[in-house]
Amino acid sequence: MSASATVQDSVTAALDTRLTAIEASEDSVHAWVQLDVVGAKREAERLDALAPAERDALPLAGVTLGVKDIIHVDGFRTEAGSRILQGFEPHQDAPVVASLRAAGVIVLGKTVTTEFASADPGATRNPLDLDRTPGGSSSGSAAAVAAGHTDLALGTQTAGSVLRPAAYCGVYGFKPTYDTLSREGVLPLGWSMDHVGILGSDPALIAAAFAVAAGRPQAEAWTAPVRFGIADRHFTDAQPGMLAALARVIDLVGEHGWDSRALTLPTSFEAAVAAGTLILPVEIATAHAERYPGAEDQYGPRLRTLIEIGRRISAPDYLRAQRARAVAAADFARMLADVDVLLTPTVPDVAPLGLASTGDPRFLTPISLFGLPSLTVPLAMAGPLPAAVQIVGRAGEDDTVLAIGQALAETIRGTDLHRAAREDGNAHD
Predict the structure, then answer these.
(1) Which of 25, 118, 137, 201 is catalytic?
(2) Quick check: is 10 catalytic?
(3) For an engineered disulfide with 180, which of 105, 174, 176, 272 has Cβ 3.0 to 4.6 Å away?
(4) pLDDT confidence of 3, banded at 50, 70, 90?
């Protein structure tokens, strides 16, 4: 059961708290494209009517969920922020949604995405500052969690589309190892980089949802000292506030008896980053190869530009880029062998002013390119907007990333780095 439901008399009462938050701020935040209040209330009443043993058998009974509008949900349209798909109804759940429903999750509705999960922004605003971007492409998912509208939300990340909006909005965001969560029933952007991820205000609840969605036991608590790796470059190109927050985290974990050590990124790293700028446009153009011809004027300018670039990249160039990616991924894996996780700033700076851009994904794109599990942990900083750190693990070690993330959250709790409002699902300190 969700944290909100455990302190109230019923699932219905917990749901009412979320619906009240939606009513209070959705007109300004614009996190949702579709809501099913009637259906959510009906499901809450069904769960309340279960015998205690039946309800206890559902690990996520009463947890509310928003679903990014490129993921199919029975009873909802999948329009992907696009004029091209207006009115499209899949009439089935994506497997990741079906597994969460079977565990007792209440689907509230579909959250705003940038157009086809690319770079043309939607209507969503950042609940922490309505004049700033919430990030993208999982814009509505991050904003809905930050505004207290929902316990959890599903998003997707191809470059930085789960962790970046989570960081900008001051919530947790988790991207598993590539293909750990099913991409069936999810509209593709870049097939070799697309990941389904989970956002929430409670890392333990994210871990529980991930275990259900992945069909595995939940991660056990981390009890050993943690060995953090700190990269020597690329991730250091951040604003002073972000670097100061990272330094404070390093000091704090040192006080806790954990270790942090410098890591030298492999010489192949920059070549892989450059390769990503070829790989992604080709895969975007391929994903839209059937829709795009004759419908060019129905696409937003950023997505249209990416498709046109992708159509001009040759097959040999694409294959060379994939080779550079594979070499760098192997080198990066060897670098991680001597630590438990890599620790970096999640984003170079806080959410930028304005709504015309979704922000800078450069600290996240390489991790998506390598298909590694990563979690963003929100932090307090000197101003009203949050900092955040990214925890990156080895491929397949999703549970390690989640367990260390929860341990780090507990270590931060009560310190000057703690942002209590994020864990309460409340948009304001």
Answers:
(1) 137
(2) no
(3) 176
(4) very low
